[in-house]
């Protein structure tokens, strides 16, 4: 692997960024450890960014030219803001994504011969190993609160979603004092909760418009298909498979596939349901932008005792670090700031980036202000347009 500062005209999809990439006025386009997508590269070109520090396999990118010349330093409103410590490091994240992808690919076959079944079981063993590492990492006292912004990706949504749901579910389980054995069961089920989507056409999963009734039936069938497939492959015991089967059941009995109510739904399924909903609505999709953490948690809380279990949601809200210290945000009055104190996770203290004024969003005079969004690359064009309109 080569690590170098590469002229932006030689960037290609799949290269890994090793440093933050900012627009001239300091908005993040790319975070360290991100695999570059065509969309990210387009942003880099649009904003005339000359150099990006990357890592890549020389054999895969023969046209890439190694350059030793450093990227010109640019003054940025974000320059002195420390990096946010990720929940899991790049090595473990990459290992998890590769393992999840192997599992989906191994199961996604109609030819269940002995060789394919052996491959599938080896993939499952890798998932088990990753879950053990996640539990160990998340049990570290430095991760008393969990944020998952660094797990997001534009590509391979299902794989990243499976990892994020597992991280959130394990964090909830740890807060509820689960035993190590139960945490392993929960983490494995969370990793595999969407395995039945191998039977759902990608065009339905990524359809930009509203699904028809028949299309929605096909998507909903992924829970039963996942259960059937795990049973066929002899993965886990019956309790494990039922956890996967029931992650879309709702506590008021309107979920699927069996319209179970309340305590009839396995408790670990109720945990996965909360993690699944939060991550789904805060993730980038081809057909919509993600909700902000505040919008997403309001949605989650609105589903208490309808779709979601009260105690699980309560634990989740207490455990999550929705706006980590050093997160850059846009307020509802269009000003930009950085979180400096998040003792109150939903109403933190913000330092304005222009005036350095500190605003406590819990103070009476600031109650009308809300956090519109976390500033990141996908927000840039809209943000720039808004600034121009207000200037």
What would you say this structure looks like, in words?
With 391 residues, this protein is α+β, with helices and mostly antiparallel strands. Helices cover 41% and strands 10% of the residues. The chain has helices spanning 38-46, 90-107, 114-138, 157-175, 180-191, 202-205, 213-220, 222-232, 238-245, 267-281, 293-302, 310-319, 380-390; strands at residues 2-7, 16-17, 21-22, 28-30, 51-56, 328-331, 336-341, 349-352, 358-360, 371-374. Helix 3 packs across helix 4 (157-175), helix 4 (157-175) packs across helix 10 (267-281) and helix 5 packs across helix 9 (238-245).
H/E topology pattern: EEEEHEHHHHHHHHHHHEEEEEH
The main sheet comes to: 5 strands, antiparallel
Structural class: alpha+beta
Mean pLDDT: 83
Strand order within the widest beta sheet: 9-8-7-6-10
- Taking the alpha carbons of the first and last residues, their distance comes to 46 Å
Q: Please report the total strand number as a whole number.
A: 10
Quick summary of this structure?
This protein is 41% helix and 10% strand. It is an alpha+beta fold and 391 residues long.
From the structure above, extract its key features:
391 residues; 13 helices; 5-stranded antiparallel β-sheet; 10% strand; 3-stranded antiparallel β-sheet; single chain; alpha+beta; globular
